[in-house]
Write a structure and sequence with these properties.
Elements (H helix, E strand, L loop, with lengths): L1 H23 L24 H4 L19 H6 L4 H6 L5 E11 L5 E10 L6 E7 L2 E7 L1 H19 L16 E3 L1 E5 L7 E3 L2 E9 L2 E8 L19 E5 L1 H10 L2 H7 L9 H9 L18
Antiparallel strand pairs: 1-2, 1-10, 2-3, 3-4, 4-6, 5-8, 6-7, 8-9, 9-10
Length: 296
């Protein structure tokens, strides 16, 4: 009995240690970058003219949008069933399996397998992959997806024209900055942590090859669980080859994501009900025609 108690205690300790490590393991990396305050909308920004090599201007078709593109109303409410909302299920739909390179806690570039994902009934899509000890579901909304596609196009152009400079200052940020959204946890069923990080687009030379880079800055955990001990997400750096970057941009295109969105059925309003019942108000009960309402 004593041995069993010690074993259970050890398991609990290891689980708590992994939880803490997954939330703070990269906290000291890139110390010049501070996490964003919880819930702060981040405007889409294009790189400065000195970095981009051309006149600085807003993304075409993507103005500096106001408001929160990752509101609780969109993420938690939506048009899920009551059971899905209570249990927190149906958080995303999985699609193609993808290979993603990432920078580990020790600074090594390693290979991980993940999936493209889409959050049902929203304009949000991205990918899910294990980073250090936790699973991270990374999302971009419509305007931010457009900014990423612009960044990929610029990266491919610079790649083909050999404009990518190994000595570029902070190359992971040269293609702009947007706001993102993440859900994370040790396993898929326990991804209760949430954050709204700042996201940089750029490139990074790994050995002799320049990879497209998505740099997700650590951010405060905004989960509403009072017992949650994870204070922040971790800094994440994801690297993509030319083919991988193109595949990601294609998956996040409006044409692809809009096709996955299913508009909710319109619920009958009070006026509609009044209109229906007013038609029968002057008829005797035995003469009234009863019919099945399409709105049910």
């Amino acid at each position: 009995m004593i041995r069993h108690s010690k074993f259970v205690g050890c398991v609990a300790f290891v689980f708590m240690a992994f939880s803490f490590f997954s939330c703070s393991s990269t906290k000291n990396q890139d110390s010049d970058m501070e996490s964003e305050p919880a819930g702060t909308p981040i405007a889409i920004k294009r790189p400065a003219a000195s970095e981009a090599g051309e006149e600085s201007k807003p993304y075409e078709g993507s103005p500096y949008d106001k408001g929160d593109h990752y509101s609780d109303e969109k993420i938690k409410g939506g048009y899920k069933t009551l059971g899905e909302q209570i249990l927190g299920t149906k958080k995303y739909d999985k699609y193609d399996e993808v290979t993603i390179y990432l920078s580990s806690t020790l600074g090594r570039v390693i290979t991980r397998y993940g999936n493209f994902i889409y959050k049902p009934h929203t304009d949000m899509a991205g990918f899910i992959v294990r980073y250090d000890t936790s699973l991270y579901a990374f999302y971009l909304a419509k305007s931010e997806r457009k900014a990423l596609r612009f960044a990929v196009e610029q990266y491919l152009k610079d790649f083909d024209e050999r404009n990518l400079d190994r000595n570029q200052k902070k190359p992971e940020r040269v293609y702009g900055t947007v706001g993102g959204y993440e859900e994370f946890g040790l396993v898929e069923m326990q991804m209760k942590n949430r954050s709204k990080p700042k996201v940089h687009f750029g490139y990074k030379f790994i050995k002799k090859s320049p990879f497209f880079c998505i740099y997700v800055v650590r951010a405060d955990n905004i989960t509403d669980d009072p017992d949650n001990q994870c204070k922040q997400s971790v800094d994440q750096k994801y690297y993509f080859t030319k083919a991988q970057a193109q595949a990601l941009a294609e998956f996040l295109s409006d044409e692809n994501i809009d096709a996955k969105y299913t508009a909710p059925k319109e619920k009958p309003t009070k006026d509609k009900y009044n209109e229906i019942f007013d038609a029968y108000e002057d008829k005797p009960e035995e003469e009234a025609e009863y019919k099945e309402f399409d709105s049910y």
